[in-house]
Amino acid sequence: MIDPIYETKGAAKEYAKYALNLYTGCPHKCPYCYVPQVLHITKEKFHSYIWERFGILVELKKQLDKGKFTEQLIHLCFTCDPYPLNGFHDTTTYAIQLIKDSGNYVQILTKAPRTQDFPYFDENDWFGVTLTGENNDNAMIESDRIDALKEAWNKGINTWISFEPVLNPEKVLEYIEKLWWVDKMAVGKLNYKKSYIDWKAFTVDAQKLLKQRGKEYVIKDSLKKYLEG
Predict the structure, then answer these.
(1) Which of 67, 140, 190, 206 has the most neighbouring CB atoms within 10 Å?
(2) CA separation, residue 40 to residues 34, 35, 36, 46, 192 (Å)
């Protein structure tokens, strides 16, 4: 295994400079998932079971011990969920501890939040959830994700939401307006699947609401083009 922490490219870099993927496979079966295509495996195989990447924690510790990363924010995860709802949570907990013990910081993005790891977070870490505006039967429902996000916020942990991909624009706009307390929001377009969403109208409305919040936000490049002209 090459060094597991890697520097991101393309659209991923809009979220974080560095990332770590702990698992192969994901049980959530999101219909818009792009990862099987990237990994060159079938959707059926990718979603049917999940396993910890072989030697991931050993290699992570080796890489961190080299001292290359100091006070860097490391994103968990892009090609999997850091909390896959199947008992592998200890791997994520140990990874968080290794990252924190090395003097670096963690940025979580999940559809199945686990609040037991909150004691490891401080003012430099970020805990985030994905909200698309539609529930997925194979992942924790969005209201429960928001409850976990609120718990993190109440504990003083930096909170963020990834609205990517937007599936229900009306619901996402409602979230942006009502979840005023969230520290950062990021909005991205639905790709890889056809949709009938008026992306220009949605992006204009979303940016207006995001500006009104007066907090940090990201409109991903896939949507910025609808703000031009």
Answers:
(1) 206
(2) 10, 8, 6, 10, 15
